[in-house]
Amino acid sequence: MSYLAMVYITVALFFVSAVVLNHRDYQDLWMLKDILFPTAVFILTFTIVVTHLDNNKIVALICASFITLLNLMPAFKYEWFWGTEDTLRHYYLWLK
Of 13, 26, 33, 58, whose CB count within 10 A is highest? Predict the structure, then answer.
């Protein structure tokens, strides 16, 4: 495995830990509040690593993990990632 892939894994772990450490039980006005810098570093690192890697299998794995981590960001940061109405929607749909 290339050192660039190891750099990406390290930055990805930093990104996940930064988001988890900013866990809230309420919805912010902006999803990237307090995690803008770690998100920008993660995206920049992803861009540099994918640009410089030659192995397409590793690039595909890194792309899949990148998209997965960005999509899981609200679940890591918020208890109810649909906002305060999340509990009402879930229980209402369950009662139907």
Answer: 58
Say which residues have a Cβ less than 8 Å from residue 27's Cβ, sequence separation at least 6: 78, 80, 83, 84
3-state secondary structure the chain: CCHHHHHHHHHHHHHHHHHHHCCECCCCCCCCCCCHHHHHHHHHHHHHHHHHCCCHHHHHHHHHHHHHHHHHHHHHHECCCCCCCHHHHHHHHHHC
Closest CA to 42 of 23, 67, 60, 22: 67
In this structure, are residues 74 and 83 in contact, taking their beta carbons and an 8 Å threshold? Answer: no
- Tell me how far apart the alpha carbons of residues 12 and 6 are, in angstroms, rounded to a whole number: 10
Tokens 């995206």 sit on residue: 43
Q: Please state the pTM of the whole predicted model.
A: 0.78
Please give the single-letter amino acid code of residue 42. F
